[in-house]
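Quick one: Pyruvate kinase from Heracleum sosnowskyi, structure tokens please.
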Amino acid sequence: MHSNHLLLEEPIRMASILEPSKSSFFPAMTKIVGTLGPKSRSVETISGCLKAGMSVARFDFSWGEPEYHQETLENLKMAVKSTKKLCAVMLDTVGPELQVVNKVEKSISLEADKTVIMTPYQGQEASSEVLPINFDGLAKAVKTGDTIFVGHYLFTGSETTSVWLEVESVKGDDVVCKIKNSATLAGSMFTLHVCQVRIEMPTLSEKDKEVISTWGVKNKIDFLSLSYTRHAGDVREAREYLSTLGDLSQTQIFAKIENIEGLTHFDEILQEADGIILSRGNLGIDLPPEKVFLFQKAAVYKCNMAGKPAVVTRVVDSMTDNLRPTRAEATDVANAVLDGSDAILLGAETLRGLYPVETISIVGKICAEAEKVFNQDMYFKKTVKYVGEPMTHLESIASSAVRAAIKVKASVIICFTSSGRAARLIAKYRPTMPVLSVVIPRLKTNQLRWSFSGAFEARQSLIVRGLFPMLADPRHPAESTSATNESVLKVALDHGKSAGVIKSHDRVVICQKVGDASVVKIIELED
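--- reply ---
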């Protein structure tokens, strides 16, 4: 399995480029988050998405009613049952998102060099002269010369579905803007982004709280994607809110960095959040184009060193309407993997794109090819150096397990865990082989009934690069003897064999707790 791992430092053999890509049970180590919507909500399509490599389903509450998303989620559950592939659920909040309200849904044509008025009076009909918006403080927030973008795919310069406006003057609550490019806006709602201007709206709105406390609680969401995170306080506030909602105290919070303000406070946000989503669509507007790649590299590196998942968005926009990505997009996906991203998030591409399954499949194939040339050796040394000495007990065990697996050319690392922390630490060192995380359930009681923990922990590792969870039988509790460990190990090895990652005579590295001690052992499989 590992003879085909090349390093970018070596000249890449042309033969390896001409070889067809091999498909495997784990399409790629890098995970794929798919946004489910109109074009991807049938059981059949979702099953296709899961088989193609989607491991997290994102529900975007910027549009659609909770009942609509509930139907989609019920279909997801059926697809998970039929494909036998685990999938986590991510709820994406609306946050302080500015929107143009187009109630009649007729398309609006805007012509370059003409003017258009933005008004907070939503009763007005949207037209090429007036755009009603959902925020009454815009006139106070902007000044002459500020840039505003309106559109579906926030303006990237190539499409004609987004418009670039410049503020000319403010009249009462209205903002008069000059149109910089001709465009046609279609649909019921378009996002509006004001460059480098703070919008005084709460990060977690009352509408968000209502959705989380009803839809979120009912469905025990695994991840909360906190849109427009601007300060560490935003994450703390969201966590305090989740802690009042029973089971959701276990939900992980991913801070979505969407503007300069979030970037400025990146380090403190990273400390508080469980993971980071780099919303490159909005950030790409807030930053000058020449800085976009830099922030991605810097942010992903910081996430890697902190051992927290980094998720990159907006990679294959053109696949919303096309079967193949552009050359630049294909290169971009690969570079996100080489930078160290844990997951790729697909938005419009799966939500309303024509080819949701094909998009996931192609992105997975590009990730798998990039992983072959990922410089693990350099990455490992960098991480060990960053962690420093003395290492904590767990960190030392995790790095030793990865080093051992690479030295003996193990085909897989198996880690027994109940909280998922040990497995995530192993994955942090980016081993070249998959990490099978065997989640051992813990029995807990509230004096009225028993329940097992473990399912949350297993699903939450579905966003971590290289980590593949499986739930152990609850009859093997976490505080187990060596005999039960052996039977759980057999189940894990059988799972690996059926998945095609383990063959006879392969070596396997196992990381487990025996009593109070953590043990790393190497076994060689017989026939």
